[in-house]
Amino acid sequence: MSISGSVKAFEQAQSLIPGGVNSPVRAFGSVGGTPIFIAEGKGAYLTDIDGNRYVDYVQSWGPLIFGHRDESIENAVIEAVKHGLSFGAPTQAESDLAQLVISMFDSIEKIRFVSSGTEAVMSAIRLARGFTNRDDIVKFVGCYHGHSDSLLVQAGSGAATFGNPSSPGVPADFTKHTLLATYNDIESVKKCFNDSKNIACVIIEPIAGNMGLVPADKEFLHELRELCDANGTLLIFDEVMSGFRATLHGAESITGVKPDIVTLGKVIGGGMPVGAFGARAEIMAKLSPEGPVYQAGTLSGNPVAMAAGLAAITKLKKNAEVISVLNERAKRLVEGMQQEASACGITMQIDTRGSMFGFFFNEKPVKNFADACSSDAKLFAKFHSMMLSKGFYFACSLYETGFISTATTDEMIEDTIKASAEVFKEIKNNG
Ligand code: HOZ
Question: What is the pTM of this model?
Answer without folding.
Answer: 0.97
